[in-house]
Amino acid sequence: MQRGSEGMSFPRYPEYKDSGVEWLGEVPVHWVVGPLRWYATIQGGVAKGKSYSDDTPTVDLPYLRVANVQDGHVDLSSVNTVTVALSEVERYRLQPGDVLMNEGGDNDKLGRGTVWEGEIADCLHQNHVFAIRPNQYLLPYWLSMFTRSSAARSYFYLYSKQSTNLASISSSNVMSCPLPLPPTAEQRQILSFLDNETARIDALVEEQQRLIELLKEKRQAVISHAVTKGLDPDVPMKDSGVEWLGEVPAHWELKRLGDIVEFSQGKAHEPFVDADGEYICVNSRFVSTNGSSVKRCTKNLTPANKGDVLMVMSDLPNGRALARTFLVEQSDLYAVNQRVCRIRPVAASPLFLFYLLDRHPSLLFKDDGFNQTHLSGGDFTQLRLYLPPENEQSEIVKHLVSHTYQVDGLLVESHENIALLKERRSALISAAVTGKIDVRGWQPPAGSTATTEATRAEMV
């Protein structure tokens, strides 16, 4: 017995046989296992840039590129056109029910097929996108679902050409992939089961994602209130003179950032980037990911010391990195790159400034939403701030460290829950499409109105 997304158990088939494929193992005795080419043909795509003579009738048509076919879904937000001869249109035209698959891509995503349902009329596809056309024995969504299984992942990994982060696979290897295939009625039943079960898991994932966003919002709200209003709700207040800030504690002093810190801009370390470098190159991505995206370098032109606050000075319109902060906790390790500045506190708590300056509204107002934002040194040094006395800064920091520690723990727990749910989803798909569980007796929950994979399969 194996369990579904809510703990329900599913039986195994009464009889199994050896599939003859090591990574596939046993399959139900009435299933057929054969290469994909038994059940489908593959259509090559059009190569962009092909030239035609002046007397050749041509037409411009939309076509799907590798960028449109990503990780098991079709992204139609940006579809380009290509010029082809009228006589070649049928050769490259997509048909509803084609399963699209990229020739190359990320190692962990290569081979994930997605069903084309004819969203765009007269749509072609690039030569780096395979269009696999199933026959009457293979439902398109069965093939798409199988490509998401661990068994298929093993095949594509073994038979693709691997590089550092990318892989590619030939059309002949795609069509040689062993495919476990039950009768079409059973395919529909399994697809319907998976659609309902994975929808339940996806709903739980969405709940966790919403919780993460709420926790982040609460975390930021607590920080913003503490560094602009303090911790005492009964303290006398005064008008700050800043519309977005409103009132601040009456005893807080107005300062320019340049009067309480030493300010320096980073230097270009790109010529010295080396995976084995001694120093961490602090660029905008490093700061915006809180140090999880790391590049190293062999020279340190702008060293950062413990207690320095590093901030991003440049970002794309509406970017999430602009004015993000990173607190340095170890000297002689970080090299501050260009478009990042080093703020060295002289008359303020480093951790208080780290909280106060992160995504500071006065800096974010420089982003017009249309052009890349480049904050100047003056934008930082002339920044006006209301600061509490140092002892009050320490109290606020203690409060925020405690609060953020608790919230961060809940965030870690939610991310772990999402990872476990996704693992469960993947395991369930793999078990169903390789016959490790028998769901022929499964019935959809009463009142279910979700569009099932089986219904979509009938549509194409």
UniProtKB/TrEMBL annotation:
Residues 50-209, 250-404 form the Type I restriction modification DNA specificity domain. GO terms for biological process: DNA restriction-modification system. SUPFAM superfamilies: DNA methylase specificity domain. Pfam families: Methylase_S. Residues 194-221 form a coiled coil. The keyword Transcription regulation does not apply. GO terms for molecular function: DNA binding; endonuclease activity. Transmembrane segments: none annotated. Keywords: Coiled coil, DNA-binding, Endonuclease, Hydrolase, Nuclease, Restriction system. InterPro entries: Restrct_endonuc_typeI_TRD (IPR000055), Restrct_endonuc_typeI_TRD_sf (IPR044946), Type-I_RE_S_subunit (IPR051212). Signal peptide: none annotated. Belongs to the type-I restriction system S methylase family. PANTHER family: TYPE I RESTRICTION ENZYME ECOKI SPECIFICITY SUBUNIT, TYPE-1 RESTRICTION ENZYME ECOKI SPECIFICITY PROTEIN. This is Restriction endonuclease subunit S.
